[in-house]
Amino acid sequence: MSGCAFKNYGDETFKLQIASHGKDVMWVPTKIEMTHEMFVMAKIRPEDLLYDLGSGDGVIPIEAAKKYGVRAVGIEYNPDLVALANRNAERANVKNLVTFMQGDIFKEDFSNATVLTLYLGDSLNMKLKPQILKMKPGTRVLSNTFQMETWIPDDQIKISSGEMAYLWIVPAQIDGNWQFSGIPNIDNASLKILQKKQYFEGAIYEKNRHKISLENGKIYGDLIEFEFNDQSVKYVFKGQVSGTEIVGILNNESNKQVIGRRLP
Ligand SMILES: C[S@@+](CC[C@H](N)C(=O)[O-])C[C@H]1O[C@@H](n2cnc3c(N)ncnc32)[C@H](O)[C@@H]1O
Q1: How far is the CA of 87 from the centre of ligand 1 (A)?
Q2: Average pLDDT rounded to a whole number, residues 167-183
Q3: Element (H, E) at 183
Q4: Residue 51 CB less than 6 A away from ligand 1
Q5: Whose CA is nearest to atom 2 of ligand 1?
Q6: Could you tell me the domains of the chain?
Q7: Could you tell me if the CB of 22 is within 6 A of ligand 1?
Q8: Residue 1 and residue 215: Cα distance in Å, rounded?
Q9: DSSP letters along 125-179, please?
Q10: What is the pLDDT of residues 202-248, one digit of tens each?
Q11: From residue 150, how far is each of 168, 197, 204, 227 by CA, in Å?
């Protein structure tokens, strides 16, 4: 009889092969090199809380804890993989930082994450997307290989084997109407914003009449930026969104403060 052709990715207690188990998608591990490249792209900080959805043998949470000392949680459907990941965490001496829980990623709460990692598939990413877009602005979402259709990545990397990973920064939700004070030459300015994920179009209205179109509208977490031209002067607004308020300045001049309030 010939020897076993399959490599055991598990341990003595649980034998694991590539493309086995899984619920909505089978188990395939993220390469260690990829975990490190993804963490650099997301600029992981020790105060982060990482969640890996479908955590398999635990490689992503364990590497994050080992390398950056971050707290990390893995949600995994298969209880044998949860137990293996816990043993792997113990062997890596990061049991104090890492938790693996048995559960379904479509039922468990991961809204506390500041970094979310995915290695799932195009359709599963799409299914998670509405929930991800409601996460805290600035949450960094990393996906090994698979994208999010119309949500353009904020960054991407390719590792030596040619595999890609993508980063999205959850944008603040600013779609709608805003009252703005501090816009030069316009007493009663309102802004209509049409948001497309981390980009937006819009216009400044004066007493409900269209006055100036916004250009290059971009949202990076809770930071927003747009430009407009008025009377041959170019203005660049940079500000921060905090709930129903946007506060910022024009052309980096601290005396040109602009404040926006969301209109009902
Ligand atoms: C491609 S593997 C990725 C494993 C790990 N995140 C990594 O990158 O190495 C996908 C994992 O998702 C798990 N999984 C599939 N559907 C799931 C679900 N609905 N809830 C939780 N885990 C699930 C599978 O058991 C498998 O371990």
Answers
A1: 17
A2: 97
A3: none
A4: no
A5: 27
A6: 32-169 (3.40.50.150), 176-262 (2.40.128.520)
A7: yes
A8: 70
A9: HHHHHHHHHTSPTT-EEEEES---TTS--SEEEE-TTS-EEEEEEPPP---EEEE
A10: 999 998 888 999 999 999 999 999 999 999 999 999 999 999 999 99
A11: 12, 9, 26, 24
**If pLDDT is split at 50, 70 and 90, which confidence band does 18 have?**
confident
- Tens-digit pLDDT profile for residues 71-101: 999 999 999 999 999 999 999 999 999 999 9
Calculate how far, in angstroms, residue 171's C-alpha sits from the geometric centre of ligand 1. Answer: 26
Model-level pTM? 0.93
CB 193 within 8 A of CB 174: yes
Atom 14 in ligand 1: residue holding the nearest Cα: 54
Sheet holding 164-169, edge to edge: 98-102, 71-76, 49-53, 115-118, 140-144, 164-169, 155-158
Question: Can you give the pLDDT at residue 5?
Answer: 61
